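pasting for ref. prot 1 ->
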Amino acid sequence: MDISFRADEALYLQIADHFRRLIAGGKLKPGDRLPAIRELAKKIGLDPGTVSRAYQELEREGTIIGRRGGGSFVSISASEEYLTRQQQERLGSLMERSILEALGLGFSTEEIEAAFILRLANWRERRIQSAPKIQKNVPRNLNDIYFNGSHDLAVELLASHMSTLHPDIHFNTSFTGSMAGLISLVQREADIAGAHLMDQESGEFNIPFVRRIMPGESVVLINLVQRIQGLMLTSGNPKRIKGIGDLRSPDITFVNRQRGSGTRILLDSQLLSLGILPREVKGYEREETTHVAIASAIAQGEADVGLGAESAAISAGLDFIPLIKEKYDLILLQETLIRSQVKKAVAIIQDKSFKKMLSSLSGYDLSETGNTITIDNKHN
C-alpha cells in the first residue's frame, strides 16, 4: 500500500483510495473481505483509528459493508456500474495530472491535444492491422459523419476534436485511400472523402479527378492542409538513402501504401519516371493503410524506408527526406452541406483553435486550410 506522509491528502483518505483502486481494477470483488483494522494498521505502521476512519469512509459511501464482529467486506452494490465509475474517475485523475504538468511546462491546450492524438494514433497502429472499413448495406446513424479516403493525422485530430466539442456526433473514419474515398461519395457510402491526388498533366490536385470520377454531381472541396510527402527513414539513416532511386538497391527494404491511395500513385509515378520496375523494389508488395502504420513498421525495424507524410515520420522519431508539397482536401457533395452535423465539422476546420492545433504538427502549411472550391459538374 502506497501511503505518503508528506502528501497533502489525509492518511485515511489515501487508505480509502487504495481500496477503491483495488476494486476498480478487479483485484477486490464484491463479497471479498478486507484486512482486519488492527492487522492492516500494524502492517503499514499507522494508528488503528486512522484505518478505522478509512473503513468508515468506504462504508459511508456504500463501497464496503461492516459486519459487527465479522469484519468488512466489499459491498455487493460495488457492481459493474460502480467499477466503471471508479475507473473513469481514476482515468480522469491521471489525465488531469498529465495536462496540468504539460501546462506547467508552457504548452498550450491545443499543443497538448495534438500531441495526445499523435501518441494515441501511434499506439493504435502498433496493435491493429488496418483501420475499419465502412461496410456496404449497413444502416447508418444519420446523426453521425462517415469519412472515407486517404489517411492523415489531421483527419484523426479533426475526428477527436469533433467528439470533444460535439459528443453526440460520431466522426467515423475509414482509411481506404484517395480513389476509394471518391468512389464512396459517388455510391453514397460516405459523407466526406479525403484525397491528395495529383494530375500528372496539369500538376493540379484533386479537381481533375473529381471532374472525371463524379460527372453530374455538384461537389465541394475544402482544403484541410497542404502537407509535405517524402521518404520516411530509419533514425540515423544507416542505409544512406538519398532518394527514390535508392529503392532499387537489394539491401534496402521498402514498405508500401495500398493500391488506390494517393501516396501509392505518387510512388508509382516517381518509379516510372526513373525507369524502376516495382519488382525491383524489395518490399513493394507489403501494403499498409496509414502513414502511421508505415512509420511504425520502420520504427520497429521491419523496413528501412517508406513514402509518407512528414508529420507521421517526425511523430515516430524517424528521419525524413522531403519530396513534394501536396494539397490534402476534404471532398463532399454539395447536398451534404445542408446537414447540421457536417456544418459543425466544417466550422471546426475553419476555426482558429483547430488551426492552432495543426500548427503544432510538423510538415503542414495551413495557409489555405478551410478554403472551399465548388465544382458544378451538373452543368459542365
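and prot 2 ->
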Amino acid sequence: MITIYGGWPTRSFRVVWLLEEMGVPYRTRPVDLRRRATDAEFLALNPAGFLPVLEDGQVRMVESVAMLEYLTGRYGPTPLAPVPTDNRYPDFLQFLHLGEAGLAAYLNIAVASRFMAPEAERENFGRLTAERMFLNRLRLVSDRLERSPHLAGDDFTAADISVAYALDLGDRLGLAEKYPAVVSAYRDRLAARDAHARAIARDPPSTAPA
C-alpha cells in the first residue's frame, strides 16, 4: 500500500490529488511539523524533515513532482502523463516541472518571511523578489492558457496538478489578486474536479504554515 506522509496544505496534496485521479489505493499519514523532531518514523524516511514523503514498498521519495512522475510511470499508463512520443509531451514535461522549479520553489522564501520572520523583517527584499519572480514566470502559464484549456493541450494532466498547487500557495500568500483572469478561471475549473474534492477530504490537515 502506498503511504503519503504530509497534510493539507503542503505539497503532499499534489500526490494525493494525482492518486485520486488515477484511482490508485493509498493511505495518508499526517505529520505535525512543529513536533517533527520527535517523529522518529517520519525522520527515518526524510531526515531533512520536509513534506511530503512517499513510501511504496521499498521505494522512498521526498520530492513531490518526482512522485508524480514515478506514480504515473509505475501505475500507468494514464492519460495524466503523455508518453514521450506524444506531441504534447514537451509541454507536459515543461509545466510539470515549472510548477515547482519555476513557481512554488520561489514562494518558500515568501512563506518563511511571512510566517517565521520577526515582524519588522517580514517585508524584506528576498520575499519581495521571490514574489516578483513567481509572478514573472506565471506569464508562461497565462500565455499557454490563452491558447489551450490545459497546460499540455486540451486534456487535464499531472502538469496541471503540479502548477495548481503553486497557484494555491500563491493565493495563500495574497498574490491571487495579481493573477491574470485566464489563470483565475483555470483554477476554478480545476477545483471543480471530483478528484480535487476527494483529495481535500483525504489529505489530513498539517500544522505547516503553507
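Helices lie at 12-22, 40-45, 64-74, 89-116, 125-145, 158-172, 181-191, 194-202.
The chain has two domains: 2-80+195-202, 89-193.
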